[in-house]
Amino acid sequence: MTLLLNSISWLLGRLPLRGALALGRGLGYLAALFGKRRQEIIGRIADCLEVDMPEAARIRRRMYRNLGMTAVEFLRQPHMTEAEVREHIQFEGLEHVPPLGTPALALVTHTGNWELLAAASPLFYPNPLHVVVKALKPESLNTWVTQTRSRWGTAIHDRRGSARDLLKILNSGEILAFILDQNAKRNWGVFVDFFGKPACTSDGLSQLAAMKGLNTYPVFCRRLPDNSLQVTVRPPLPPPPSREPEAILEHTRLCTGEIEGFIRQYPDQWIWMHRRWRTQPE
User: Fold this and answer.
1) Is residue 255 situated within a structural domain?
2) For tag attachment on the chain, is the N or C end more exposed, with fewer CB atoms within 10 Å?
């Protein structure tokens, strides 16, 4: 698998970025045309956003177009230069970022090109960035993806069994990022409303925020009309006042509300095929 990924990455690296993005849009068009669960996804979009079915279908098509470009960008990422990355991404709201050496938590979502957002952050802000993710299978794929994500200095951590390491990171004055828009198993999270329906959401970020008294900075990415990327750092959310269950629940609810608000603004940027509400309350 590594040989295949390296070969595809090398071929895409030979293309200019504009040509690679055009290829990605084409792949997204095909995915929208032949993708599975078409009606399920359209119905989910229509239900959550309260739009009619034709508009939901248009959002789905634009979503796949963005995902096609995101996939091509990620495969091409090992061959992107720092200059190309800086030209392709713009950051706004950096005035909200804490001073260098100040520990903080970042809230990230699967919008725009979240992969390039995380990987390229060290090029724009020198405080080391650590991202908590779920390991992929097989191991060879996980190794390749981790190396690609770490290209410019971002550190990747498996969410399983990493609590002690995560505390060390925060104690060192660094930034730890969590992605909270994915379905969690019942023993991994709490239920909060997401588009009006209970969604099981990891409370790890909120637990750490309460334990260390740290602000949480929403950091979201979207693709602009010219297909470049814009990363927005929003004003921080204060930590929970305690580690009591209600305080953790409320903080998790606030974080989820930030994500929902961004998706409502840019609905074609999120991954609507994800079964976010798969885990149901007992």
Assistant:
1) yes
2) C
Contacts 24+ apart (CB under 8 A), 240-246: 240/206, 240/209, 240/210, 241/210, 242/210, 243/207, 243/210, 243/211, 245/190
**157 domain-assigned:** yes
Cα 245 off chain centre by = 26
Could you tell me where the beta strands, DSSP code E, fall in 181-238?
189-194, 197-202, 216-223, 229-233
Q: Residue 7: which residues within 8 A CB-CB, separation 6 or more?
A: none
Rg (CA), the chain: 19
**31 belongs to a structural domain:** no
Q: What is the per-residue pLDDT across 81-113, written as a single tens digit (0 to 9) for each?
A: 999 999 999 999 989 988 888 999 999 999 999
Instruction: State the amino acid at position 74 in one-letter form.
Output: F
| Residue 38 included in any domain | no
Residue type, 77: Q
**The pTM is what?**
0.94
Q: What is the pLDDT of residues 209-237, one digit of tens each?
A: 999 999 999 999 999 999 999 999 999 99
CA distances from 37 to 46, 52, 225, 272, 273 (A): 14, 18, 27, 11, 8
**Sign of the alpha-carbon dihedral angle for 250, 166, 94, 107:** negative
Count how many domains the chain has.
1
Q: Residue 160 has which token pair?
A: 């399983």
Hey, what amino acid is at 56?
Answer: A
- Cβ pair 118, 85 in contact under 8 A: no
User: DSSP string spanning 219-234?
Assistant: EEEEE-TTS-EEEEEP
**Token output for 241:** 């006042």
CA distances from 7 to 4, 23, 72, 76 (A): 5, 16, 13, 10
